[in-house]
Amino acid sequence: MMRFPTVSRREIADGVYTRSAVEADLPSIVTLLAQIHNDRPPLEPNEREIAAFHEILGSPFRGILVAEGDGLVGMLDLFIVANLTRGGRPWAGIENFVIDERHRRRGIGRGLLEVALGVARDAGCYKVQLVSHAKRDAAHGLYDALGFTAPVRGYRRYFDT
Ligand SMILES: CC(C)(COP(=O)(O)OP(=O)(O)OC[C@H]1O[C@@H](n2cnc3c(N)ncnc32)[C@H](O)[C@@H]1OP(=O)(O)O)[C@@H](O)C(=O)NCCC(=O)NCCS
What we know:
Blueprint: E1 10-13, E2 16-20, H1 26-33, H2 47-58, E3 62-69, E4 71-81, E5 91-99, H3 108-122, E6 128-129, H4 137-145
Parallel strand pairs: 5-6
Antiparallel strand pairs: 1-2, 2-3, 3-4, 4-5
Coenzyme A binds at residues 36, 97-99, 104-110, 132, 136-139, 141-142, 145.
């Protein structure tokens, strides 16, 4: 069975380092994630978020990469999915990718994504897949620059409760 690798601290942009998330990062992570939908940051993580964070950190197939400069300035959630096509090679997905708005356009997002691509490649994945709302021009500029293509039509259905 695979074990999601711990990413050791390495520089990805000037004075900014990536590493695997640890327990103490959760309050900064929920603050950062509020920027994805321009929400007001919560005062502290709620019980469901705490439980989800522990589940992610304990998963052998999933991990959160953070970018750290003067505090946490970015993150993404990378998960590896077992697969029965492509000769049984897994694929990787990325969610909750965000860079602090005060630190954008410094190459931090690119650096974080490149590390994630390396983890997925090393895990034997045949592709990395993510979805992005059509309005997210900055993200699309970055994905294009890193060789992602958008040949698919994605569907989602939200539940009311
Ligand atoms: C998308 C996001 C993560 C990019 O992070 P970032 O650290 O600013 O990106 P980088 O500085 O590494 O940019 C690398 C390249 O991506 C492209 N890019 C980044 N921001 C861009 C923008 N606003 N417009 C056009 N291209 C952009 C450029 O090619 C850029 O290279 P360059 O600066 O040399 O021209 C960041 O804008 C963000 O957090 N946005 C809000 C949340 C979000 O949309 N997340 C993705 C959800 S799918």
